[in-house]
Amino acid sequence: MYLGRTTLSKFLIQQLEGIEGASDLGALLVDVAAAVKAISAMTAKGALSGVLGALESRNVQGERQTRLDVMANDEMLRSCEWGGLLAGMASEELEEPYAIPGEFARGKFLLVFDPLDGSSNADVNVSVGTIFSVLRHDQAHCPRTGDYLQPGRQQAAAGYAIYGPATMLVITVGKGTHGFTLDREIGNFILTHQDLTIPADSSEFAINTSNARFWEPPVHRYVTECQTGKSGERGRDFNMRWIASMVAEVHRILIRGGVFMYPKDTKDPRKPGRLRLLYEANPISLLVEQAGGRASTGRQRLLDVVPESLHQRVPVILGSRQEVERIERYHGEYDCGTDRPFISPLFNERSLFRPESRA
Ligand code: F6P
Ligand code: MN
After folding, report:
1. Domain identity same for 143 and 211
2. Ligand 1 atom 11: residue of nearest CA
3. What pLDDT shows up at residue 356?
4. Does 94 share its domain with 175?
5. Residues 189, 240: one domain?
């Protein structure tokens, strides 16, 4: 039954051939996989672990940390700091980049991660995940914050783990997006989903509609058309999902298509979006593009956004290519006003010709 199965290590040796720093990158991804196995074991214990629930502490974003957030973060740091593969790490849970302790050699990669995405879902036994991005740092100096601020298109590798009924690891090194399932009995990740491909078209969308009053008009336009379904512009019915755990939404999209949106909104004017660019939007966007999908802010390809700070947030619209392109078109039409019928100044709000002004 185990004969001929492709393990993560075997697959990486084949995939990384010809890529600069192949053996170090492969070894680093194996270290990430080791951390993922430990986090999977922690989350699978549920309430038996005694570590569910929020702590008093908050992370740099002001969000309540859970014990699992802190434990998953420590697991990633411990698993990946020792091997001489990394020059530094940055995490959603740490305000500043993490320097590799002096006792370990420094390598030529940077690892950026969200140790437990959707962690508020752990208490209610819904899927959570780990998201990571690998950047290059081919310089002699110790990495500074600025060294992490690379556009997503420069990522050497990216991936996520999803801790669901099965634990899966989904990765890309820029040669397609591939999924591995953890065989718990033998402790190995086995290639089960080679070359994941997102259908170009779809009838499923995911957005937190409780934020509808804060959305921009192009997002309203798209969602309203989906809700109007068969009787409207789209001529077919749409389905909606919202798990509140990005890895779970993205995993569904990689398997059967769809669109995920956490768009720009006016909820908090200081935040241009909800999701973080470096360790949420960028790695997920690379996986989506490598699976034939599209990832955008609505106005720009996500992987081209030049980061300005470590914990920067960004609007995210990703998934089936044709749907994302349609939403981008709606943003473009809104920005140049062509989505609104021309209204003569004679008939506008304050016109003498409005019936009530003639009374
Ligand atoms: O990390 C941010 C995150 O937890 C995502 O995983 C998820 O998509 C989103 O926030 C959920 O946001 P909300 O609480 O607004 O539904
Ligand atoms: Mn997250």
Report:
1. no
2. 244
3. 42
4. yes
5. no
Same domain, 189 and 212: no
Rounded Cα distance between 81 and 78, Å, is: 6
Which is the closest atom of ligand 1 to the Cα of 208? 16
**Which CATH number fits the domain that encloses residue 114?**
3.30.540.10
Are residues 218 and 140 located together in one domain of the fold? Answer: no
In the structure, what pLDDT confidence band is assigned to residue 140 with cuts at 50, 70 and 90? Answer: confident
Ligand 1 atom closest to Cα of 244?
A: 11
Q: What is the pTM of this model?
A: 0.94
What is the pLDDT averaged over residues 301-323? Answer: 98
151: tokens are: 């556009």
Q: Which helix (H) or strand (E) holds 323?
A: helix 321-335
Task: Identify the CA nearest to 12 among candidates 255, 21, 186, 4.
Answer: 21
Domain for residue 111, yes or no? yes
Give the single-character DSSP code of 277: I
Query: Model confidence over 236-245: pLDDT tens digits?
Result: 999 999 999 9
Range of the structural domain that residue 179 is part of: 8-193
- 275-288 confidence digits (pLDDT tens): 999 999 999 999 99
What integer is the mean pLDDT of 337-344?
Answer: 77
Nearest ligand by distance to the CA of 278: 2
Q: Which atom of ligand 1 is nearest to the CA of 248?
A: 6
Of 133, 165, 193, the last residue of a domain is 193
Total domains in the chain come to: 2
Contact status, residue 285 vs residue 266, Cβ threshold 8 Å: no
Interatomic CA distance for residues 14 and 6, integer angstroms:
10
Residue nearest atom 14 of ligand 1, based on CA coordinates: 244
**C-alpha 306 – ligand 1 centre gap (Å):** 23
For residues 332 and 329, give the distance between their C-alpha atoms in angstroms, rounded to a whole number: 5
State which of 61, 117, 282 you would mutate to test the pocket of ligand 1, scoring each by most atoms of that ligand within 8 A of its C-beta.
117
Q: How far is the CA of 280 from the centre of ligand 2 (A)?
A: 6
pLDDT for position 60: 75
Q: What is the CATH number of the domain that holds 241?
A: 3.40.190.80
Residues 131 and 218 in one domain: no
Claim to verify: residue 334 and residue 308 sit in the same structural domain: yes
Q: Cα of 88 to ligand 2 centre, how many Å? A: 20
Which residue, 96, 91, 126, is CA-closest to 246? Answer: 126
Mutate to test the pocket of ligand 1, among 130, 210, 215, 246 (most ligand atoms within 8 A of CB): 246
For 124, which DSSP code? G
Give the residues surrounding ligand 1 with Cβ less than 6 Å away. 117-118, 208, 244-246, 274-275, 280
